[in-house]
Amino acid sequence: MFSGSIVALITPMDPTGAVDYDSLKRLVDFHLSNQTDALVIMGTTGESVTLSFAEQLQVLKAVLAQVDGRIPVIAGNGSNSTADAVEKTKILSALPVAGFLTVTPYYNKPMQQGMLAHYQAVAGATDKAVILYNVPGRTGVDLLPETVAELAKVPNIIGIKEATGSLSRLEQLQALCPADFLLFSGDDATCCEFMLKGGHGVISVTTNVAPALMSQMAKAALEKNTELAQQLDQKLQGLHHQLFIEANPIPSKWALLKMGLIADDMARLPLTRLEPIHQSAIEQALKQAQINV
């Protein structure tokens, strides 16, 4: 259903903090013309936690209308409240989204049994595909492979975005989950090796600024063309690291502004603009990826 290079799309904003729909349209066109395989809209990179649900709904509707079925659109539906995540999922299921990306509940620090019940409730609220999202560095909880294997028994839970960056975690998931359970890297720095070792794709921050190169690298890795995949990934390593020099998506927004794709690098508080001291490092990473700014 999903594979390859999937972008965790940023949400462009104007200087007042309102969503900039003109810039959003440019970004979607940028991905449609540069072989991005699918879009994640209103994921955590899209600053969903600081947008109202009404805003999230409006952004999703705008992107869905523009994409018009050309590539899959995956909606972020996560919350640290199970009731909120279920209600959000029910409403978004009326839209022509291809599926959902559901982050683990953050801050509450639920036990494995709590996360199991959370995801079962969310999946039960829709007949669309649900992709689990494990990112312990930002949520404070780690969805363990044994819990993932139990969730893989739910018919519409079809995969996981695994962002620990651990390749041994990939091996554990492969050993415990069905062969058709989709495994996506959520860690750009290790995503090439993740795919070479049998992962199905990457849900990526780097793809925001280097979609064509990420698409080529993912294609090579999925075809097990190790030499080409690693050669392409080497050009991307600077971006993989420097786009996290400050909290995501601050660096990506600055890079996209430099590339002329968005009109402002505004983020919603408590996120701020990129500190000037970090700008040269990102410029160098863009040049390494052969992106002109």
TrEMBL record:
Q: Does the keyword Cell membrane apply?
A: no
Q: What is its main location?
A: cytoplasm
Q: List positions binding pyruvate.
A: T45, I203
Does Lyase count among this protein's keywords?
A: yes
The record's keywords, sorted A to Z, are:
Amino-acid biosynthesis, Cytoplasm, Diaminopimelate biosynthesis, Lyase, Lysine biosynthesis, Schiff base
- List the active site: Y133, K161
Q: Where is this site: Part of a proton relay during catalysis?
A: T44, Y107
Its Enzyme Commission number(s) read 4.3.3.7
Gene3D superfamilies on file: Aldolase class I
Which principal EC class is assigned to this enzyme?
lyase
Reactions catalysed according to its record? L-aspartate 4-semialdehyde + pyruvate = (2S,4S)-4-hydroxy-2,3,4,5-tetrahydrodipicolinate + H2O + H(+)
Q: Name one GO molecular function term.
A: 4-hydroxy-tetrahydrodipicolinate synthase activity
- UniProt pathway: Amino-acid biosynthesis; L-lysine biosynthesis via DAP pathway; (S)-tetrahydrodipicolinate from L-aspartate: step 3/4
Q: Where in the cell is it found?
A: Cytoplasm
Question: GO terms for CC?
Answer: cytosol
Per the UniProt entry, what are the Gene Ontology biological process annotations, in alphabetical order?
diaminopimelate biosynthetic process; lysine biosynthetic process via diaminopimelate
Q: How does it assemble?
A: Homotetramer; dimer of dimers.
According to its UniProt record, which protein family does this protein belong to? Belongs to the DapA family.
Cross-referenced PANTHER family: 4-HYDROXY-2-OXOGLUTARATE ALDOLASE, MITOCHONDRIAL, DIHYDRODIPICOLINATE SYNTHASE
What is the purpose of this protein? Catalyzes the condensation of (S)-aspartate-beta-semialdehyde [(S)-ASA] and pyruvate to 4-hydroxy-tetrahydrodipicolinate (HTPA).
HAMAP family, A to Z? DapA
Instruction: Report the protein name in the record.
Output: 4-hydroxy-tetrahydrodipicolinate synthase
Q: Which gene encodes it?
A: dapA
